[in-house]
Amino acid sequence: MSFVSEPAAPSIRTAVPGPATHRIKEDLDVVIDARTVQMVIDYDKSIGNYITDVDGNTYLDVYAQIASIPIGYNNPALLKAAKSPEIVSALVNRPAVGNFPSHQWLALLREGLMRAAPPGCTQLFPAQSGSEANDLAFKAAFMGYRRQQRGDNPWTEYEQATAMKNQAPGSPDLAILSFRNSFHGRSFGSLSTTRSKPIHKMDIPAFKWPQATFPQLKYPLEAHIQENAQEEVRCLQEVETIISSWHCPVAGIIVEPIQSEGGDNHASPAFFQKLQAITKAHGITLIVDEVQTGFGATGKFWAHEHWELPSPVDIVTFSKKAQTAGYFFSDKNLRPDKAYRQFNTWMGDAARIIICNAIIDEILSKKLVEKTAQVGIVLYDRLATLAAKYPNRIQSLRGKNMGTYIAFDTPDSSTLLKKMRELGINIGSCGVQTVRLRPMLIFEESHIAPLLAAFETAFSHLA
Amino acid sequence: MSFVSEPAAPSIRTAVPGPATHRIKEDLDVVIDARTVQMVIDYDKSIGNYITDVDGNTYLDVYAQIASIPIGYNNPALLKAAKSPEIVSALVNRPAVGNFPSHQWLALLREGLMRAAPPGCTQLFPAQSGSEANDLAFKAAFMGYRRQQRGDNPWTEYEQATAMKNQAPGSPDLAILSFRNSFHGRSFGSLSTTRSKPIHKMDIPAFKWPQATFPQLKYPLEAHIQENAQEEVRCLQEVETIISSWHCPVAGIIVEPIQSEGGDNHASPAFFQKLQAITKAHGITLIVDEVQTGFGATGKFWAHEHWELPSPVDIVTFSKKAQTAGYFFSDKNLRPDKAYRQFNTWMGDAARIIICNAIIDEILSKKLVEKTAQVGIVLYDRLATLAAKYPNRIQSLRGKNMGTYIAFDTPDSSTLLKKMRELGINIGSCGVQTVRLRPMLIFEESHIAPLLAAFETAFSHLA
């Protein structure tokens, strides 16, 4: 799998960010808000796990475009897919796919994307972003909930008239429950379930939907078994209390397998098993948001496979490493009872699905999920050793046996990240004090050494 | 501009839809909801204004993927762009563009997409769909509104804490006003402003936002001048009444230049001039939704250019014919006061922007907007003549001097559309009884003859 031309190590030539980044950022800021630009990248010079900026600095990239590059920059298999006649056609002849699908559409889905379907999920709705996927999943949950209530009764005139006025009963007061510190996106539906930071939510009207506490586990896990189990029970009780007491029915629950933007917060398989049981008992749709956790990084194709659930998840949303987006679902009742209820002009992008299918090919044929599981074990062990040496710099190390989806708390994450970038490692943070590793699925044991060396240098520097 | 290999006329070989469409539709329905599929298309055989289905039937396409194909199937200029090294790189190395833009990003926007910026609009936020563009525009309006109120005061702890709970004042109760019969998309924000049909809105929770009546003009316009002017005054008074009496502040107004899904409803330039004046007087953001009307079909690049406004529109949203999406804006205060408030992982798709830039090249270099204005005059005149012959089939003909953005009412539009397709014309409807023409910008005078011949045959058949 290795990229033969991948650099052996990072190399930094200028201040970080360098003068060329500064110059382009200034120009960009005239037409778009460029305050968030960290580095301007020459993607044509970037390769595999390494990213090269316009100042000629090359970084080992374990952030990977906010966890969204799956199999490396300029991966040869993706280059081939991006030059295929199929993608050219998809780019220039973009259909209103719900009405006029192409002759390739069936194969792109049935023989393509459906290979990624989570266990028990037989159906799919394509989208273009994680936020859109979650919004669509919420709509499916609401329509499904009302269908249970309505049975075979037709829509009344009154329902239809009130829906047009944004009033109940046509536009009913129904809720999606999410968890404190979760991130599910920034559109109006998904943002009403996002609970990680004020910067996302301030000044934006939101639906009056509830949040439950997500377990705050203590580390190391083996030293806090009973305490953590009690914490999870407490959170599940909160879910039950909200369902029975909220001012309107809860039609769906959305949860991340690992709360990522919110600080890489984990919970046990038992927690999620019980959460599913609660949704089943109440006739509520369980939506597992695998936008960041999906596509292999946790050492399973889908992170929720770690839970060994007794029955399939209702809805699984995806984006990021898929390089396309949408939701898979298992329950036929989540397909709306009428045509055109879940519909839009483009419903995804066949060009992006072609890229996704090439990614799935690579993941399956090169066993990248299994390899990531193995590399993750080594990486975790090395970090645990480092944590023993720098206990004040690496705290609450988490992600054991979760592939390379590893994180730890550190006192001043922004200073560490800056230092790491000066040392040639592009790395991200989350929550308030967490460093999250999000390497690609082609991160190998050979990449651990430069990463760990940089941590060691940074920690000594900061000490 | 003509496609040399474009068919001279439609040709229909099977029942419509044909057996191959039926077969593929059935297979598709196993993995996705395929009830909405009308025809399965062989896009590789489609060319220019003509679309060919998998049964070998070739149609003149004046629906163009719900008004979203701008310059013809397999346009050579787009094929070239779709094979360029730039697009290959954009497809395989998709950045989190707000943090790590490519070295090409500046040119793609400043020398590319910004050429399409409406008069006075100096800035841009890219997106992936019309719904997303409108949601983002609403967020910009809400943040802008609160900024006016808050001045330079920092966010309070209480605001931040309440925002995290979806409660005021952090998550304030603010509204976007839209118009009856409008369509602005299907995500939770945009759907709360969509008011065209219950099928879009039923069972979906909505924000308690208000709607005003959109003028219902009588045709022919020259016979109802005073009546129509009064109707527009009445609607504007309704807007004023809502602004002063709604249960919460109205922070923005969204309006389509021509209500498209809602039935191709027009209003006069005076109406929109006065609407803008109202928003200015109240410090409200005016959002013009040009998702369907933008990019030339009305004989201006942007439909709102017909209004000759005294000052730029605050926000203009786009998608469809742009083959990418987003919003342009004119007021610097609509850029949020802090970084990361308007942000997401992908913020558009550079690959789709490269296609859009090739579309803009073609539109500008081949003067397609001016040509569409001219062809529209001829097309409208021919339809007016036909209306005189079939006054019960073509009613309230509208879109005079609006390019090819022409529509009329007809007693049974679905039967007419079915008949037209059997005659080799792919055409769309809107509202409850309206036939809408949405030909591409490469629709020429030579295409009028087969279209009009089919109408004539269909009308005699239906008579």
UniProtKB/TrEMBL annotation, chains A, B:
Its EC number is 2.6.1.19. GO terms for molecular function: 4-aminobutyrate:2-oxoglutarate transaminase activity; pyridoxal phosphate binding. It catalyses: 4-aminobutanoate + 2-oxoglutarate = succinate semialdehyde + L-glutamate. Keywords: Aminotransferase, Pyridoxal phosphate, Transferase. The keyword Oxidoreductase does not apply. Pfam families: Aminotran_3. InterPro entries: 4NH2But_aminotransferase_euk, Aminotrans_3, PyrdxlP-dep_Trfase, PyrdxlP-dep_Trfase_major, PyrdxlP-dep_Trfase_small. GO terms for biological process: gamma-aminobutyric acid catabolic process. The keyword Transferase applies. It is an enzyme of class 2 (transferase). Its cofactor is pyridoxal 5'-phosphate. Belongs to the class-III pyridoxal-phosphate-dependent aminotransferase family. This is 4-aminobutyrate aminotransferase. It comes from Penicillium cf. viridicatum.
